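Researcher: We plan to redesign the surface later, but first we want a full-length starting point. Tokens attached.
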């Protein structure tokens, strides 16, 4: 064995030793923090874009979600955009996260169009901690509906809380989701919630790159079937974006999911975009993703439920 190989194994062993202890510690600390100060801002505003750390409710009452809020100048009220982040079934990888994702390119595009932007980190991800509520099970029997609805519940909880803030409007909200976050956003499309104007999903799905192998997806037929389930009764129009070089959910599979969503009654505008970097799945984190988002929303923050093709 090479020296490098030995180091990698040693690091992995240490990480696994703490893999179960750390979530427990975070879960124990989180309720104390929530009880001491409640939800809301945790620090002063800063740069860029009035960046401010917040605590917001999550579906797990004992685990407040750590979040980052961005705002345009002024007192508002502003329309709200919630960005739902990607995820992984690997507990070790979730533990190795060190901060709440911020999606700076998407955030800048949204704030420039008059939105207040919340990026909440869902339970089961470090540093929010707590239980992972989006477990989908084994590869062959993946329960994509259960996992997606758990993600949707977290998005919904954050939306409802932010709607109580005096600087947030009660209409015209936009949900932007990436990967597993986009999958949860699709599950939200059937909500009877007039405050949500549009869903924009970057490469939505779960189970992609199974075993870290490009173009390998756990139970793809289940993904397509669940997309149809999410499309039934869907009220909110969806814009579905995927890059040509996405190796998690390739355009062919993504189109099948979008068509299933549409055939079941959902309104979806499906777009295959040019290749983005070395791996198109991270389009949402690149300038091209921000440009597409700006194009979809246009120059005005006055977003309404547009009539998209069925």
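Model: Full-length starting sequence:
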């Amino acid at each position: 064995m090479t020296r490098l190989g030995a180091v990698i194994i040693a690091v992995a062993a240490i990480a696994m030793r703490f893999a179960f202890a750390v979530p427990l510690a975070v879960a124990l600390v989180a309720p104390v923090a929530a009880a001491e100060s409640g939800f809301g801002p945790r620090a002063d505003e800063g740069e860029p874009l009035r960046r401010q750390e917040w605590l917001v409710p999550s579906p797990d009452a004992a685990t407040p979600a750590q979040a980052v809020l961005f705002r345009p100048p002024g007192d508002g009220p502003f329309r709200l955009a919630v960005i739902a982040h990607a995820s992984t079934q690997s507990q070790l990888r979730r533990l190795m996260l060190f901060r709440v994702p911020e999606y700076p390119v998407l955030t800048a595009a949204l704030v420039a169009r008059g939105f207040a932007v919340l990026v909440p980190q869902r339970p089961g991800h470090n540093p929010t901690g707590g239980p992972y509520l989006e477990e989908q099970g084994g590869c062959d029997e993946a329960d994509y509906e259960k996992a997606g609805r758990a993600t949707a519940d977290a998005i919904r909880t954050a939306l409802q809380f932010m709607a109580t803030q005096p600087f947030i409007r009660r209409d015209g909200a936009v949900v932007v989701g990436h990967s597993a976050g986009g999958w949860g956003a699709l599950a939200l499309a059937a909500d009877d919630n007039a405050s949500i104007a549009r869903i924009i999903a970057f490469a939505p799905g779960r189970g992609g790159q199974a075993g870290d192998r490009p173009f390998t997806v756990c139970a793809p037929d289940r993904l397509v079937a669940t997309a149809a389930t999410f499309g039934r009764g869907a009220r909110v129009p969806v814009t579905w974006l995927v890059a040509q070089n996405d190796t998690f959910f390739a355009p062919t599979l993504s189109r099948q999911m979008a068509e299933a969503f549409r055939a079941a009654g959902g309104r979806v505008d499906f777009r295959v975009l040019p290749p983005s970097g070395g791996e198109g799945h991270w389009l949402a984190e690149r300038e091209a993703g921000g440009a597409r988002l700006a194009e979809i929303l246009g120059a005005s923050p006055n977003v309404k439920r547009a009539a998209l093709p069925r």
